[in-house]
Structures are given as C-alpha cells and as structure tokens.
Amino acid sequence: MRYSELCKVYEELGATTKRLEKIAILSEFLKKVRENDKEVLYLLLGNLYPSYDPREIGISTQTVIKALAKAAGISDEKIVSEWKKIGDLGQVAELLITKKKQSGLFHGELTTEKIISDLRELAKMQGKGTVGKKIDLIAGLLSNSKPVEAKYLVRILLADLRIGVQDSTLRDSIADTFFPDNKKIASEKVQHAYDLNPDIALIFEKARHGLKELDKVSLKPGSPIKAMLAQKVDSIEEGFEVVGKPAVFEYKYDGFRLMINKDEKGNISLFTRRLDNVTNQFPDVVSFIREFVNAKSFMIDSEAVGYDPKTKKYLPFQSVSQRIKRKYDIDKTAKDFPVELNVFDLLMLDGESYIGRPFIERTKALRKIIKNKEYKLVCAKQLITDSEKEAKLFFNKALKDNQEGLMVKNLNAVYKPGSRVGYMLKLKPEHRDLDLVIVGAEYGTGKRAGWLSSFILACKSDKHGGGEFLEVGRVGTGIKEKLDIGVSFLELTNLLKPLITKSSGKEVKVKPKIIVSVIFQEIQKSPTYNSGYALRFPRVTALRMDKPLNEINSLKDIEREYGEQK
Ligand code: AMP
Predict the structure, then answer these.
(1) Are residues 360 and 411 located together in one domain of the fold?
(2) Nearest residue CA, atom 8 of ligand 1?
(3) Exactly one of 100, 134, 252, 376 is catalytic; which is it?
(4) Cα(344) to centroid of ligand 1, in Å?
(5) Exposed e or buried b per residue across 292-312, where buried means at least 16 C-beta atoms within 10 angstroms of its C-beta
(6) What is the CATH number of the domain that holds 145?
(7) In a domain, 204, yes or no
(8) Are both 375 and 488 inside the same structural domain?
(9) Ligand 1, pocket residues at CB < 6 Å
(10) Does the annotation count 376 as an active-site position?
(11) 75 CA distance to ligand 1 centroid (A)?
C-alpha cells in the first residue's frame, strides 16, 4: 500500500477529536486494506509489531534531529531552534522537507511495506557504532518522503503519533468495517478475541473471515493476554457483599504483576500488565519457573515481590521497580534486588484454556503444579472463609507481613481479561495515593543544579478517547539525591530529558510518559492548575514503569478523593 494513503488517514484522524468520526474514517480506510497489507494496523497504533512484542524502534530525539539535518541539508542547531518554536519535531520535518522539495528534488513513492521493513531494520540496530547507520537510514527515508510523510515518519520514530487512536477505537472500527449491521455484538467479539490474543493485525484478518473465525481465537502462550483488574472495596463486609459467601481471600502482594507463559516447546516469556515483554530482565524468575512449575505449557498470573537479600524482609514495590526497564548488569541487579514470585491464577494449562472455569477450579489446578519454594516461587497465601472475623485476622496478618492488604475473589467467577468486573477486589488500609504522569519540570539550583528537581504532575481527563492531561500540582519531595533504593533526581532527569518538548529558562514541558505514585496530605481547590485542584504536600513514593498511561488516576478520582476528605 502507498505510504501516502496511510498518511492521508493519519491527517484526517488528527483533524478530529470526535471518536465516532475517527471510527468512520478508520473503517473507510480498513475496507481498502488487503491481507498482505494487514501490518498497517500496527502502524495505526504507532507500532511495528503486536503491542506485546519486545522489539521497539527505540530512537532518540537526538538521532532524529541529526537525520533530519542530514536530509534537509541544514544544521542540528537550526532544527532545534525550529523545534523550540513549533514544539513538534514532526511538523518541523514537514516544513523542512517542503522547503527542500521546492528546490525541485525528485522523490519516489514510499510504500508501507518499505516503511515497516526499514523501521524493523532500525529496531535491530543496537549497540555502539550503529548511530551513524541509523541516521543514514532515517535520512534516506526522509529524503524520499513528501512533507506530510516526513511528518508522520518522525512521529512514528518518536512514538508520538498524535492522532488519538487507541486499541479500542481500532476494535470498534474493525467491527464497523466487516459487520456494519451487527456492530454491537461484533465489537464485543472483536474485543474478546483481542483480549485472548492482542495482535491487532491477526484479529483484523480473523474478522474479515467472519464472526465464527473470531470465536476460534484462543489463548496462546507467548502472546500474553491482558490481566484481569481489581475493583476497590473499603471493608471485608463490602467484599463479601460483592463476591458472596464464602469468598477467597489472598494476600495482596506489593510488587508488580507478571504474566508467565511457557509454550509447548518450553520457551518461557514474562510480561508486565502493560504487556511489555520483560523476560530478559528476569533470568532468575525464568529459572524458578523451570524448576518449580511442573507442567508442559501454561499461562500463569502472578505478582513479583522484592525482598532484601540480607535480611529477607519483603520490600515495597519501588525497590524492585528499576528491574523492569533494566538493560545492562542484569545478573548483578537480580542478585541485589531479588524477587519472590507469588502465583495466584491459572489461565491455560497444557493446551487447555482455563479462563472460562470458576476461580476455585483454577486455583486448585494451579496449586497442583506448583512446588512452593520460599523466596523463589510460592502460591499466594489464601484463606477461603465465610467468617468476617477470620478474614479480618488474615487481613492484619498480611499487613504485618509487609504486604498491601488483601484481594477478595469470587469463588465461581471466570477470568475476564483486561476487565474490572468485580470478580476480584482489592482491600487496602486507608491511605491516599495517586498514580500521576509528569508533564513538566524545572531545573534545580545549588546542589541540584543540572538535575530536573521539581515536577509538574497531571491526571488524565475523563473525556472519551483520553489523551488529555490536567495538572494537579508540583512535587519535589520523596526523591533521593543519591542513587540508592528508590527514585533519584538523576534517574528522573535521564528519563525525562529525551521527552522534553519545550523549554523556557529553567522550565521544561515533557511528553506525558513517566508515571509516579504520590502520597499527599490533602487536596485543595486551586486556580493555579487547569484541573482546578492542587495536591498539598505531595511526595513521590515510586516510579511506575509498569503502568500504562491510560491507567493513571483521572479527574474523577481526584474529585472523589476531594469529596471524601470533607
Ligand atoms: P491495584 O494495582 O491497586 O489496582 O491492585 C491490583 C493488583 O494487585 C493486581 O494487578 C496485581 O498486580 C496485584 N496483586 C497482588 N497480589 C495479588 C493477588 N493475590 N491476586 C491478584 N492480584 C494481586
């Protein structure tokens, strides 16, 4: 397919904020997508592969600037200064390539296959000495691009398409394309199939061949499914009310979710709840799975919890969070920050799907294949009871053991991927915390010179389609000056610098990507921030590299917290 056709759709999508219009645009486009072009669906989400695939383009802004300078024949500085004015490197590329084309250069016709294969090539280039090659490859593509094509090429490279299309938009568009008379049911079936195998191009192809084909989509170890999410309750009594009596209570471990997959060939893969593949980061976990899970193939849901290697005390999430993104010194980090895997659900076993079976069956089957080994791999501590008194004692025990609280589970419920349906509840002691995204920062002075040291936090707006963030305050506390356990200024500065979109004086704006958990004393109404609220005395407690942006707290959550504190 011609790349220009895709760019036309990107433009149309970017020009409307209305979800229904986006769906109409997409379904018109999808009608034209033939089977061999199905991978353009990845490009519509700004990816090259299904979202769970670990291969990323991974290009820094600096490399893109250099490639653009090369293609346009001007200096890096000129590009940076244009970028500062416009705030979007994609638009800068569009402008510069327009100027260049006016000088009469010929360009060929780019295809989406060429874009995908070149970008995949780019994703493979790693390590020292590849920067030059990367720049050449990108500059080559840019030189062959029309202005609008250059704009989107740059945006794809920087993982910032700005067209407001999410998985759910694409799902509804697929239903619209192939089942215009049966949209509602089709949309649910597309979603269900996508939950079981989140490969949008594959689901698109299945949908083309009818609802029956969608029904046949099943679990496959190695392509992870979305984790079932929990609803919050405030008391044991409320827990019983929601899931009935008796209920299953389990420790709520304070770690991070790991979806464990082992296929028939024995390949093990690990995914976070964002479906990031983190197998390479956890060789220790891979070896525990080989040793302590006795089955040929499976998909298991679990929580990995850090502990102090010397004292064996369990540690809060933030102490191990750094392992999730680690690329170097993996073995050393595994030794310094060991984790214990607490398994709690079984989704597939030896080729058979378990997600449609009641929880009680799943947990029994899981417990049969696990050999418990403390500090390596264990089943989540569990109590099945109809007694409030027993459940309370269990809750207190979980807190004493340094865990977050309890999960309350419905004995008879199926596993609903990606949903917060009330089959699984969380119960924590009262304390307020929020997960927010950093949208801006300020360079420090004195001891903190050179570091970004004060951070503007934002929640998501509740508007449909998301993508908009509202500021709720500034935070500078809770962050460490020295690199030890926890979040340091240096680490945050390094993470945020490549995301800077605008700077003036000491202030910078950054792409919303880095999520932090904060606790605070109080929420006040405030005209200072565009959410209308401000957090008083916020403190950062953890970096949440494991959380997707659409799961941060929303304006509604802030309003609710504000209401509750009164
Ligand atoms: P929250 O992240 O606050 O919504 O709490 C839900 C999370 O608790 C899940 O996504 C898991 O990562 C985690 N968790 C810890 N222990 C368990 C457990 N026994 N069962 C299910 N989830 C658990």
Answers:
(1) yes
(2) 252
(3) 252
(4) 10
(5) bbebebbbbbbbbbbbeeeee
(6) 1.10.3260.10
(7) no
(8) no
(9) 227, 230, 250-253, 257, 273, 303, 344, 380, 407, 426
(10) no
(11) 50
